[in-house]
Amino acid sequence: MLDGAVRKLIDPTLDAGGRRIAALGVTANSVTITGCIIGLAAAFAIWQHYYVVGLVLLLASRLCDGLDGAIAKVTEPTDFGGFLDIVLDFVFYGAIPLGFILADPSANGVAGSVLIFSFYVNGTTFLAYAIMAEKQDMVSTERGEKSLYFTTGLAEGTETIAVLSAFCLFPQHFSIVAYIYAGICFYTALSRIILANRVFNPR
């Protein structure tokens, strides 16, 4: 829901950083992979109860996720780069809740599992919609230049990063926040299904 507004604020800074990094010969794919590795390190830190360290690594990972696209703009965007970006994003978004589950299975196990399941359902509707949009030559630039067609919803990247950060700041409240956000993800998925029915279902 907030991604469009946030992108307008941060894109100029990311683009400037991307140009400087690209000038050093760093590739977008290498930054994507680095971001994922940092994200997995964040999940490991959370598992070991180093929540503040996990938060710092989490935010660093998402900074890389923003910079890789900025680098791609000034070099040579590829379909593989877009593919790698979305795959490793899903790795990250599954790893952080898993870190909390491993940190305290008895307290966080069920809520974390429900949250990961909601990510799976929401992500599936997102990707399926993008595939159908591609078939119909639909284009959207509301979320910046992307390799896939991006649909809006209550649960987008900005909201998810905010929730994952809140987990690190208030780990004792993980379960309740996880259940609430899982509900938002399920609602977003249902909304996307309804939208797909309107857009793609011939009448």
Tell me about this structure.
By secondary structure, this protein is mainly α. It has helices at 3-23, 28-47, 51-74, 79-103, 105-135, 157-169, 174-200. The mean pLDDT is 89.
Biggest β-sheet description: none
Proportion of residues in extended strands: under 5%
Number of helices: 7
Given helix and strand content, the structural type is: mainly alpha
Can you tell me the residue ranges where pLDDT is under 50 for at least 5 consecutive residues?
Answer: none
Residue share in helix: over 70%
Query: Could you state the order of secondary-structure elements as H and E?
Result: HHHHHHH
Observed structural traits:
mainly alpha; 79% helix; 203 residues; single chain
List the helices and strands and how they pair.
Blueprint: H1 3-23, H2 28-47, H3 51-74, H4 79-103, H5 105-135, H6 157-169, H7 174-200
Summary of the model, kept short:
The protein is mainly alpha-helical and 203 residues long. The chain has seven helices and no strands.
